[in-house]
Every structure is written in structure tokens, then in C-alpha cells.
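Q: What would this chain look like folded?
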Amino acid sequence: MLVIGMILTVFLWYQGIMIPNAYRVKDYSVKGVDVSSYQGEIDWGQFEKQGVKFAFMKATEGSTYVDPTFEENWKSAENTKMRTGAYHFFSYDSAGKTQAQNFIQTVPLNRDSLPPVIDVEFYGDKEKNPPKRSQAEKELQTMVDMLEEHYGKRVILYTTQKAYDLYIKNGFDQCDIWIRDVLTKPSLPDKRGWTFWQYTDRERLKGYSGEEKFIDVNVFNGSEKEFQVYGR
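A: My prediction, written as C-alpha cells:
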């Protein structure tokens, strides 16, 4: 029976029917999403009606890639009261300078936007063969410095627990942390606090029609009043 129960739990989670962290985020009043081309065309008004207070949109990846839905998402979301921001998927195979230039050329400068985000996680075989911290740290620091200078905001680092341990722990004090943990409430190993928490990657909302049927949902670690002034 125990095995059957575990299998059923995994199945319900995989189908987005059960969200393990749902009860853990009840005390966080500010919720938002992060999206990319996988969500397809988005009805931002529908998101707002469902209580979405913010959205981070994928803008760029590496030194040359631009998300094909970014420009439309950025413009359309301006018609809502949601706060919006952009994120960049960091490449370990590309210079931090050219990655920063790609983001800066793509994402408009807007005082009211949320701070720029650099997504630091693994792709391809990088988890099995992780790059050296010294090299990754050097290129990431270059990008952080360039975005901070250009946008005049404290950069956010989105990361997984493993990537945090390898590349961010005990460093990058100038950045805020957006941590992914879809099973439990996050606790960073260096006792650092987090600003955003991606608590699930299997939520279903009305308002998008892409190839990905699920959407990532996050919370802000603070009150609605604190959120309104955050990053401004």
C-alpha cells in the first residue's frame, strides 16, 4: 500500500493535480509567474484576474538568442497592473560581456520594471560535468556588474539548490536570490535569505496556449507594500 501511495502521489504531482508546496505558500500574498515561448500567446488580462501580481519573461539566452515571444509579452503586459521583469538564461559556454550585451540590447530600460534576472542552472551535460566555479563565477560577475550599471538596479540571480551550492554560495552579495524548490520550503546553505521562491513548475492557469501546459508560479518574500517599492 505504501508503494501504491507513493506512485499515486508522484502521478498526481506530475499531472499538476497536487502541488506539494501549496500549503507552504499560503502566508505569501504576492504571487507571480515566469514565462517563455513555451507558454505561447498569453492573455495577460486573464493572468491578472487570477491574482497574478508579477511576471518575469524570458528575454535572452547566451550571447545571441532572443526569445521570440519576449517583445510581444513585454508590450502586452504593460496594459495590466502587474509588475514585470525580464530574465536571461546564463550560458557557461559564452562570455559574460556578450551575454550582458544581448540582454541590454533586448530589454528596455524602465524604472518601474522589476530588476533584471540571470537564470543560473544546468543544461545539456553540465549537471554531470559542471564547469569550474572560478570560470563560471568570473563570467557571471561580469554580467552582473554590467546589468547593474545599465539598469541601476540590484540584479536577481535565479537558481536551483545545486547550482547555488556550486556557483553562488558565499558570493554575489550584491544580488538578490530567486530560488527554485518545488518540493519543500527552501533553506539556503549559507543561511542567506531569498527574495523570490519558485514553489511549483506544474500550475495550470487560464490565459496561455503554448506547447507547455504547465506554468511556473512564484512568491515574493514580503508584503504587498514592500513589493510595490521593491527594485524602484
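The beta strands are 31-35, 54-61, 65-66, 83-89, 117-120, 156-159, 176-180, 196-203, 215-220.
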